[in-house]
Amino acid sequence: MSAPPPRVSASPAASKLHATAPPPFLAAGRGRGRDALVFAAGVAVATAVLVLLGSSASVVLAPAGTSTSSLLVASPIPGPDDPPRTFYDDPDLSYSAADGHHRLTGWDAKRASWLRSRGLLLRRSPEKVVMVSGSQPEPCTGEAGDHLMLRLLKNKLDYCRLHGIKLLYNRDFLHPAMTSYWAKIPIVRAAMVAHPDAEWIWWVDSDAVFTDMDFSLPLSTRYRDYNFVAYGVPKDMERKSWLAINAGVFVVRNCQWSLDFLDEWAQMGPAFPEAHARWGKVFKKDLADKDSDVACDQSALVYMLLSNRDRLLGKEKAFVETEYFFMGWWGEIVDRLDGVAARYDAVERRRSSPELRRRHAEREHVLYAAARNAAVRGAVPGPPGGWRTGWRRPLITHFTGCQPCSGGRNPTYTKESCDVGMRRALLFADDQVLRAYGFRHAGPLNDSVLPLPFDYPAADNLFILGRKQSKPELVVESYASTTSSCVTYTLVPNVPSYYDHQDGCH
Ligand SMILES: *[C@@H]1O[C@H](CO)[C@@H](O)[C@H](O)[C@H]1NC(C)=O
């Protein structure tokens, strides 16, 4: 995003604080003389009104850009700490993605102005992220559907806590027609307006599981020049399959380009019934593998991006990630997770990596994650974030087609494979989280936990396949499938060193 220079609102807030002390945004900057004059006039009027109203009421000035003579007297607003006026005070501001009458324009300047008014403009490193996910307003109808939704939410909560990301979980249809898979667009757009301090909004479908708690999105490096990133498959993009780009996980920069992009996407949705019906037929005709003529959010995204490559793909526009599991399909992943875990354990067991085994506070997670990523880089093949070849942890394992809430699975998958796969992925992630609390699960599909000995997983403390691991450097080559788990990790109980270090209280 190349944000135009911020414009400072000429309309001051009218609290008592601001009547005596100018707000910080007036203190510096070029070309603000006129603003200061308008401010001074506003203060004079506001002070007069305050005198008339007494201390229990305050005033609201007219929206930015109108003259101070149209001063409005309104109901009480927050008093002494009332900060400068911003775009939020504009009565025409719309949060809606499907509101043809109130397009949000000039967002980059509005956002910059808000950040400046709160003293946040220069403090945007690391870039702030708000993750947004959600599920339907009603209870799930599938067996244990609500329990699964809770576990899937817990997984996102864990990832966000570890990475200092705010999580917004939504269960409302913000536009009555934008239901089901279309519901994400209104909430993502509203989140951009509600979080001007966030540089990025990261949408993650409810049925996507974080399976690498160490990985941080390369937002300020690889994605620095882009505004929208989703996962895609090059060969499917070539033949314009509606499955070529996945709409279930995407990250979008909080800027005007993105608002316009989301509006364009939303306009193919059910909030615009005639266009929606027309687009459904176009997608069925033009996109490979599409056998329904109902326009879904993903066909709309694929069509939009692939039919407008020059306009929408490229720098300062959209980017399709094809090199790691920004979002991986569960069928390609879950049976390999035990093999991934074994390789990470082997790296941590090495005599040369005592720092990776060091216990630490959860708030230091990102530091230890970086050290672990550096250690596995040469030892475990594959790109960070995981890939179908190699054994790095996949960032996201997406259970597309399993429909955990409704239970209405894609008939080509069995209930067993979906359920076992999901439990496997969730426990795989939970073990990474529980580590900071001194525990891990008793096995890949076992809900019981075991305490971790000091210096875990050093070979002295660990038995594999019931035998003490003789060669600590050895990578376990065999791995379990989700249906026939054969590699199990057994911790030796009562390892003295663990208890020797319980010296926090006396
Ligand atoms: C899970 O692990 C616990 C503790 O090791 C064990 O007692 C239990 O039998 C295991 N459960 C299953 C289903 O394997």
Automatic annotation (TrEMBL):
GO terms of molecular function: galactosyltransferase activity
Membrane topology recorded in Swiss-Prot or TrEMBL: Single-pass type II membrane protein
Family annotation (Gene3D superfamilies): Spore Coat Polysaccharide Biosynthesis Protein SpsA, Chain A
Membrane-spanning segments: 36-62
Record keywords: Glycosyltransferase, Golgi apparatus, Membrane, Signal-anchor, Transferase, Transmembrane, Transmembrane helix
Subcellular location: Golgi apparatus membrane
Regions annotated as coiled coil: none
Record-linked Pfam families: Glyco_transf_34 (PF05637)
InterPro entries per the UniProt record, alphabetical: Glyco_trans_34, Nucleotide-diphossugar_trans
Primary localization: Golgi
GO CC entries: endosome; Golgi membrane; trans-Golgi network
PANTHER family xref list: GLYCOSYLTRANSFERASE 6, XYLOGLUCAN 6-XYLOSYLTRANSFERASE 5-RELATED-RELATED
Family of this protein: Belongs to the glycosyltransferase 34 family.
Name of this chain's protein: Uncharacterized protein
Source organism phylogeny: Eukaryota, Viridiplantae, Streptophyta, Embryophyta, Tracheophyta
